[in-house]
Amino acid sequence: MAKPFFRLQKFLRRTQFLLFFLTAAYLMAGSLLLLQRSRLVIQQFSRGTSNNQALPVSEVILGAGNLDSRTAQNPRLSSKLLVGMYVLHDPMSDPRYGPRWLMSRNSELRQLRKRWFHRFVNEQEPMQASGMKVVKRTVENKGTYIGCFSDDSRERTLKGAVFYDLRKMTVSHCQEACAERSYTYAGLEYGAECYCGNKLPVTVAKQEECNNECNGEKGFICGGVNRVSVYRVEEPRAGSKRRKNVIYRGCFRVPENLTDTFPASLIQSNLTVEMCSEFCTKKEFSLAVVRGPECYCGYPTTQFTLHESMDRIYCSRPQNVSSMAEVTKEEDYCLVYQTPVQDTRCTDRKFLPTKSKVFVALSSFPGAGNTWVRHLIEHATGYYTGSYYFDGTLYNKGFKGEKDHWRSRRTICVKTHESGKREIEMFDSAILLIRNPYKSLMAEFNRKCAGHLGYATDRNWKSNEWPDFVNSYASWWASHVLDWLKYGKHLLVIHYEDLKQNLIPKLKEMVKFLNMTVTEDRLLCVENNRDGNFKRSGARQKDLEPFTQEMKDLINRYILTVDEALRERNFTGLPREYVPR
Predict the structure, then answer these.
(1) What is the largest CA-CA distance in the chain?
(2) Cβ distance 414 to 378 under 8 Å?
(3) Sign of torsion, CA 274 277 281 286?
(4) Strand pairing class (333-338; 247-253)
(5) 192 three-class SS
(6) Nearest-angstrom CA–CA distance, 127 and 222
(7) Where are the beta strands (DSSP E) in 347-407?
(8) Which residues neighbour 257 within 8 Å (Cβ) at sequence distance 6 or greater?
(9) Residue 69 DSSP one-character state
(10) Is the pLDDT of residue 395 over 90?
(11) CB under 8 Å to 40, separation ≥6 — which residues?
């Protein structure tokens, strides 16, 4: 056995030496060829037919571009420079190359030299230059560059809306996002964070302190560490309108103390919803409340939760007051609309200041809404969630815990889809998220075909990949739950469907399980931002039923098995909509 191994080792050593020798020979041959061509160029210039016909070398070079005159006067002219000017032929050795050709050739070389010179200057320009350079590069974007400002996360001025893109953030992307929501200013920070608002920050910083390059746009500055580059958003062109993203939330009873509940107000005759929404948007509030000629702006609070909506008839002006005697006066009710402004009371997040003593998993089958639940937990607690894996798409969208090591214990909980005994027992406790297998399978298939926010096409559903996917993943849905019920140490079971219907109560359960305490107003902020940026968009097929009867029979058996296992462990059984089809 040793002898063949020795031969192999000897052969590899010889091969390595041979490759090294060939590489050196190739480099030497190239160097000799370059020297030979350089000598040929010099000889051609020294073999002029006469002093009257031969052009001086300095004239040839100066005709090729705007070089330094000292270079042309140097008798020891570099052969590399001559080669770079493409002077590889004796202009009088061929009748085709006369004075006209030389003039044309020199003109072409001047243009090449000019383009090369400008490209060289742009490439050599340092990234962290003076303030003049930043303004020069930023003027090319839409909007007007205002300057560099200090930013404090606790007292942030541009807090109307917040966006993250840790890979593709650009100045234009931030400005367009703020313009769509009718903001006046757009600010960029850390190269990847975008903030919108209607008021400029107070503290001006030095221009060189905004030195972070935009992650999605090289050569442009997107703020710095606690420094924000601010732009005035470009006004819409004539004939074009900004998107009015105003959503009707319902009719509600007016709270008792209006001034405490709503910080801003406006009274105007002939008040319209658009006028009130625009007023509240400029004031950076997410709710616009209309009550006759009165407009109020605010957020959902414990005094105004938006949980008990009324029939819209209570907010309508009665045509016949005598016939509406049983109805309370319209002044006691108001119409509520969601403005384009983002509720930012719960958007700030950070890593745990000290390592967590309890290692908590957020476990689910793929497609069960794990990303959405992470969004809810992060905004409710103010701390990042981690992941057993690394998903660059989620990291780029603001889930900074994706890049943190999953065992660092700096995150509030860790996402996992694992279901093995060893992987489960590593965690001290877990939130077990369960979703209807029919919906989970479709969601995961959409993700595999079209990413986190897209939908699979009709061709995908009709391919052979779909039945193969169901046959392999349906059993995984059941085994995942069964394994966590068997090996999990301390579990909180959350059904996706219950969380959708009763967000605040279920979110309170999860926050308590994570040993955290949060205010009621923060939970209402989470509810106001419940969808986040992870709602699927695109062409969704209505009334899609991709499951065959054979698939349904298979999935239904797994549903009954999981339901029985949950009840045996004294957990609530599966919701009614899981009932076999």
Answers:
(1) 118
(2) no
(3) negative
(4) antiparallel
(5) coil
(6) 12
(7) 360-364, 386-387
(8) 303
(9) H
(10) no
(11) none
Q: pLDDT at residue 190 above 50?
A: yes
Residue 373 has pLDDT above 70, yes or no: yes
Among 49-58, 282-291, 374-383, the range scoring the smallest mean pLDDT is 49-58
Mean pLDDT throughout 243-264? 85
Burial group, residue 133, by CB count within 10 angstroms (0-12, 13-18, 19+): middle
Segment 497-508 shows an average pLDDT of 94
Do 534 and 453 meet the contact criterion of CB atoms below 8 Å apart? yes
CB atoms within 10 A of CB 487: 16
Q: What local confidence, expressed as pLDDT, does residue 262 receive?
A: 94
pLDDT digit string (tens) for 74-114? Answer: 433 333 333 333 333 343 444 443 444 334 444 544 454 44
pLDDT at 22: 75
Average pLDDT of the residues of the chain: 76
pLDDT at 485: 96
Please give the order of strands across the beta sheet that includes 144-150: 144-150, 227-232, 185-189, 193-197, 161-164
- Spatial separation of the C-alpha atoms in residues 113 and 105, rounded to whole Å: 12
Residue 559 phi/psi, 5° resolution?
-60, -45
Residue 560: Cβ-neighbour burial (10 angstroms; 0-12, 13-18, 19+): middle
Helix (H, G, I), strand (E, B) or coil at 537: coil
Which residue type is seen at 549? Q
- Are the CB atoms for 310 and 251 separated by under 8 Å? yes
pLDDT above 90 covers a percentage of the chain that reads 37
Give the confidence band of 45 by pLDDT, cuts at 50, 70, 90. Answer: very low
For 407-461, the DSSP string reads TS--SS-EEE----HHHHHT-SEEEEEE--HHHHHHHHHHHHHH-TT----HHHH
Residue 254, both tokens: 């007016």
Q: Which amino acid is at 126?
A: P
Cα torsion angle, 401, 407, 410, 415, sign: positive
Judge whether 397 and 164 are in contact, CB under 8 Å.
yes
332, two tokens: 């006691």
- 365 CB-near residues (< 8 Å, 6+ apart): 417, 434, 435, 437, 440, 444, 476, 477, 480, 481
